[in-house]
Amino acid sequence: MNIQKPWLALEIGNSRLHWGLFVGETLDCTWNTDYLPDSVIQQLGNGRTLDEFPAKIFTLPSSLPLVIASVVPSQTALWQSYPNVRVITLENVPLKNTYPTLGIDRALALWGAGIKLGFPILVIDAGTALTFTGADSEQNLVGGAILPGLGLQFATLGQKTSQLPQLETQNFTSLPPRFALNTPEAIQSGVIYTLLAGIKDFMTAWWDLYPNSKVAIKGGDRTLLFNYLQTLYPEITAHLIVEPNLIFWGIIYV
């Protein structure tokens, strides 16, 4: 791949596809799509561009080189037929002290954040799962944690209980009352305040270990959670970096 030419990066997440268009080493633009069926992937490989893609893609050469980072093996397999494709695996990330089942998304985001912002670094990914992943000043993985993300917690309550409604995070604006007087707000209160307290606890515990460390947050719920944290804990949120493109940083540095 000629590093001076345009190319595509694709993060295959648990819920959606996250795309980045690079020109050389510069990230030009990003966008998201739903998963694509095999027939559409075949058409992309033959040079067809989808309506969901930015208009500028239509002016570029067909079948751009594609670099993939995926946490969904079944989706990864669909892209093997795409011409000029490279799949990044954990072995490609120079992070030290990793373990075999560490997600490539966590490793790349941590590596990208560390190279760009400096080690030590803690990355919070507010996606389908909420994860914490940290590395020390020697680029060693310190470790982290995984729990259900905001939307997944609401979905689980709605799907696994007979009388509780399923709530959608896109309908949320401000913090709910902590002691609610109706069921929807009681669910919001229980999930949101507990989640925010957990994020605060992990951040302060990290700063106990690495007082001068940067902390960055990414993922689909990053803005919502950042705004909530800013309301409750402005003193810690002032030191929280919101950056949606950490994985794309990791891809370019790998």
UniProtKB/TrEMBL annotation:
Binding-site list for ATP: 11-18, 128
The protein's required cofactors: K(+); NH4(+)
Record protein name field: Type III pantothenate kinase
Species, as recorded: Nostoc piscinale CENA21
Residue numbers annotated as active site: 105 (proton acceptor)
HAMAP family assigned: Pantothen_kinase_3 (MF_01274)
UniProt keywords, alphabetically: ATP-binding, Coenzyme A biosynthesis, Cytoplasm, Kinase, Metal-binding, Nucleotide-binding, Potassium, Transferase
Keyword Kinase part of the UniProt annotation: yes
Family named by the database record: Belongs to the type III pantothenate kinase family.
Enzyme class: transferase
One annotated GO molecular function: ATP binding
GO cellular component: cytoplasm
Gene behind this protein: coaX
Amino-acid positions noted as binding K(+) in the UniProt annotation, renumbered to this chain: 125
Pfam families according to UniProt: Pan_kinase (PF03309)
